[in-house]
Write the structure tokens for this entry.
Amino acid sequence: MKTSAALDRISPSPTLAITSRVLELKRAGVDVIGLGAGEPDFDTPEFVKEAAIAAIRNGQTKYTNVDGTAELKEAIALKFKRDNGLTYAANQISVNVGGKHTLFNALVATLEPSDEVIVPAPYWVSYPDVVQFAGATPVVVKAGAEQGYKLTPEMLDAAITPRTKWVILNSPSNPTGAAYSVEELEALGEVFRRHPHVWIFADDMYEHIVYDDFRFATIAEVCPDLYERTLTVNGCSKAYAMTGWRIGFAGGAAWLIKAMGKLQSQSTSNPCSIAQAAAVAALTGDQAFLKERAAAFQTRRDLVVDMLNAAEGITCPKPEGAFYVYPSVAGTIGKTTPGGKKIETDEDFVGYLLDDAKVAAVQGAAFGLSPAMRISYATSEALLTEACQRIQQACSALR
Ligand code: PLP
């Protein structure tokens, strides 16, 4: 038997591959610092864990409604209202096994082989692959550091064709941390108004991780006339440090939510009942810790941006949110390592960092925009300082 054509169209997640490589090296006793992982180093809050334990004791251990319990949908409706000023009824909310599953459900439930999906690059690695799995075509639009890693209205307009079904907007972004301001969203909204056949997949997974008084906004809130054709996507993974619990969710048109539920009913069925109970607590409990954690991330961002900019050949913009930086490594290309190897690509550069400096980052090529790398600063200041010193030394050693 051979694997399916759909499977052959996708690749294993390159970011998860780096994480496994780091674990392997650590097990072999190598002093490697992993800056590849896309998850907060903070623990799930105690009150969330307690809610899960209570759910187990109360017998919330059975199948639930396929696309989320009534309690969780109510909590999500409250969250969308409280944080985004958006109103979604229960039949407009889908709960899935992580945000990645939300993406999968939405795209697989709607895409035809003739469809195009606009994916701004640098992109989160799953977008193009899920589009391809669904048999459609990702249209990658490169948005470099010159434009703050953000799509301009002109670029969006030029990329839309009669075949465009979805546009992915991810703010704050994985891998760059760039986030769209209200004004920038309004300007994109003008373009969407001219193309009424296009739907918007607004991935707000990093909503609560923003800095310097940046005001987070999502497009359905900024442009209420686009509400009907926007899927507003969020989840518990990043803000609530619940990556392992696997709860993602979306608010959108009732027919689309129903379609996503139909697919889910024949794949995973409901997300874990205990994780759903934990998510209710996370979304309805005291939210004060979100700001405290964002402040801790901001200190780390500042540290990493300053230290990387002091490394020869690296230029690091200061992002508005998430816990990643996406520096250009253009200044290292063409140089030679102490071992005599020429750096020709960002993959060569991150390979050199791993081999010689024992620091793991992810090459920009994985995110569709080179030469760059993604560094996750969701780790302690002490480790970040050590990692950045190693990167500085490795850069200085290039000839
Ligand atoms: N969206 C973005 C932009 C992400 O970076 C991630 C995770 O890395 C997700 C969605 C999905 O998160 P999860 O499936 O862990 O809930």
Notes: The chain has 14 helices and twelve strands. The first strand starts at residue 33 and ends at 34.
